[in-house]
Fold this protein.
Amino acid sequence: MNPYTDSNFFTFFSILLNRIGQFLTGDLLFSDLATDEIQLIVIGLESITCALLGVWLSLRKMTMLANALSHTILLGIVIVYLIFRTLYPQLTNGTFHIPLSYLILAAIATGIFTTYLVSYLTTVGKVYEDASIGLVFTSLFALGILLVNIATRSAHVGIEAVMGNPDGLLPSDVYESIPIFLITLIGLTLFHRDLLATTFDPVFAISKGMYTKSIHYGLMILVSFALIGGFRAIGVIMVLAFIASPALLVRPFIKSIRSYLVASALVALLFSIVGVVLARHLVEVYGLALSTGGLIVTLLALSTIVAVAGKTLVDRLIGQKVKYGV
Amino acid sequence: MSLLKYFADPVLRGPMGGTIFLCLTLSLVGIFVFFQKRSLVGEMLSHAAYPGVILGLLFFGCSEMTESVLFFALGACLIALFLMRWLMTKVSQDLALTFTLSAFFGFGILLLSLLQFSCGYLGRLAESFFFGQAATMGDAQVRNYGLLALVVVAFITLFYKELKILLFDETFAKTLGIRSKIFNGILFFFTLVALVAGIRSVGVVLISAILVAPTIAARQLVNKFFHLLWLAPLFGVISAFLGNILSFELSSLYSTEGNRLVIPTGPAIVLVASLIALLSIFFAPKRGIVSIALRLNKFKKKRQLEDVLKYLYRHPDASKLEVENLFSYIPKKTQYILAQPTGYQLTEEGKTVAQNIVRLHRLWEVYLVRFMGKGVQEVHEDAEEMEHILTPEMELKLTKLLDDPKVDPHQQPIPPRGSA
């Protein structure tokens, strides 16, 4: 029985506070987490992960590469899913619910493979970079879709990977999203200086002996982690919106890289919480069952457009030029 | 003939004919998209069309799907384009593209969930726009897409010269008085229409591949723009043809009694198209990665052999050990070198070849000193390279130009051309 049945936007939070109290006093077990709470944790952590990555990716003009990865990751997931299913047919429960270790493996492999293939086709094959991104992700994605259709004998599974299915989340998903969040946080903190240098002054970074290529690949692997952390909840392409939107939303208002990172993360977290609660509100009050991921992305996108347009307008009124240059 | 059924069968000929015309159109306009480096804009637009499709379905109510839905998709694309253009004045193109793409797609998903909720049948139909369902196409679509292909082909044929100049030298085009804005606008409009028309059969996620892949493949094989205009659409048509067959055959292969599996046509077509592109990138006779590597390797081998021959020619008494120390690679079984217990010996043929290399080397040295004004001391290195590259025709020219010299700048004799 879901405790949030019949709650609206405001009562949701009082129930949530109440349940957090119960959880802290030990009256509520982890396995008793309601779907809404799992969604809050998984999507909330995912949104912070994506927002932090989004800041770096947008500064490095790599978001289209992340876009390619968001498509190719499907092939990686399908392949490890097939391997797992062949090895342990009795353990396969639910689509794509496979151990995190397998998914991590898929993420690393796909991240490296996609990034390498794009740069190989660009440098060795001498294809324009945009065209080679376009070729790589569409071909791998097409292969992934065909494989998933044949392997699961259903056309719906591929669609679910694109759309996400937050109602299908299990308590085990919480265990998986925490390590992914921590890996990203630790990775970005440890390599903060290297990221700064390679992003803003690559020549200096090389002269300091930093491994610019490894940083590039490392960032792409973190993006793959974010994708496997988010595809079950919100779908691979909407993970991309989680990456691009917060970075763009706060861009007009920030002055330093630290404030950029913090502001993006906070905005992303705020929107994901509002999105999850609003989805519940719409179901209970208006009887509308809407896609949670779609709702969050739409809210984020609208706010982004309003924020950028509003800031432009204000700046114009006080006579400033507006170009953020990123 | 069983292949004929794809064009004769009333159920199969719709998807087959429709996708063939679509891929023809898309790969034609794709050539221009490719050279304008707008491949990723195509990708953005196809994703952005999705909320338009669903709004269209919602607008016309839960009735039958009509072509008019695609006008909404076109509208969504245009709005997305304006949004992206505006954002590009503030931030990088990269971020503007990704934001627009994902925001529109996310909005599409939101609308899709609304549609699934209000009428399940249309929800499933809308889902099929992800990866396309060519099976929904009939003779009417074949006619429409055929017409579209005809218009685009006619436009490109009529304005071939203008478009070509515009694509490769926009400044020159302007001095000629070609209205670049109008031509680019029309081309872009065709691209949009073809993309939107294609999302029904190939799907929003993958349709942009048909813009890029055939051109990449054709670009590897031909040099002339005119040939590209034939080859890219040909690859597009082949992809559509084979993709349809692949999707149909896989579907019937994996379908069992009572459990029908439909392999979507879009991914199948895209897979064939990318396969052609990848094959072409690797194995194209002149530009392919593998072909280039093979040629390089062949040249390296030739060079190594010639170096050994030259050394043996100049040092006929060199001991076996000496030669083996100097050269890591000594071709054992050739008609040029005989391996003796005491050392290596050149055959008659080997001697001729070696003599010619020495001749080329010294001729080139003479040329550099006499015509390029180089000092005697600095010509050797360059000649070491050129002796492997000069062809017999160039040698003849050099001999004529230099008036058949007998000694090189180092006062070494230039041997006559050896005849095998």
In short: The mean pLDDT of chain B is 85.
